[in-house]
Peroxidase
Amino acid sequence: MASRTLFLCSLQVAFVILFGLAEAQLQLNFYSKTCPNVEDIVRKEISEILSIAPSLAGPILRMHFHDCFVRGCDGSVLIDSTKNNTAEKDAPPNQTLRGFNALERIKRKLEKACPDTVSCADLLAIAARDAVLLSKGPTWPVWLGRRDGRVSMAKETKQLPPPTANFTQLTQMFGAKGLSIKDLVVLSAGHTIGTSHCQSFSDRLYNFTGKVNLNDIDRLLDTQYISRLRTRCTLTDNTTLVEMDPGSFKTFDTSYYKLVAKGRGLFHSDASLLANSFTKDYVFKHANGLQSEFFQDFAASMINMGNIDVLTGNQGEIRKKCYVVN
């Protein structure tokens, strides 16, 4: 317990040094007077939700990632489309997201306890942290005070790194959000929990260069793993779910790196981590253990990501319902 407390304190100090409270405008005690039990409420609800549907942990983490990479961490991924606008959640990269109803359930609890106070953006940031923690992963201090955005447009999801991305594309897309190569290799390990639809990687099995035959495979993918995946997925399958970290997809650990090191990362973006000396070294180093070091790195990178282009002060709004602007 003492080591975890010391770790959290060091992260808090590091964040202040790196970003400065004046610049970030987020605070650890932001709701101390207006909604002091906010994190307890979210933790209780997430615990109950994951006890019934443990496979939602990965999607909730992924949703936070997808939120922050488009317009910053402003909850815009939660907004429904309207007659005149197709929102982020209905864009192709987000059509497989799950957990919206779970987050709306938590929002109702927060509104009952603290009306018009806690933003959906903050709710999502806390929920993602708790989803990781309850999957036996690390914890970290969630800096709060984000405001909710009022705009959500499907066309802006082009900023999301696709599963087909190569290393150059990944570094450019992460760099555009102020994230480093280390953040890239660390946050990629979020794939240790959750599942993916076949359509996100089936080209690696049947149609990697457009020839559509059994020999047209991604040579970076282990051949035995290809054979196993072919028993689950066809080229046109868009419904079947496959574990991203087989045998460990409900547990947050370093097994993701073991798979990538063996050529068994599910996505081309996973395999791309072996194309750079720094990220390759990180993969192989943590494939051999060092879970505590990885946990610290993941916590720090999640704090970095959670600070992307946040709305604070009088910007944006506090939505009453996460799926619609006020």
Summary: The mean pLDDT is 92. The longest helix spans residues 2-19.
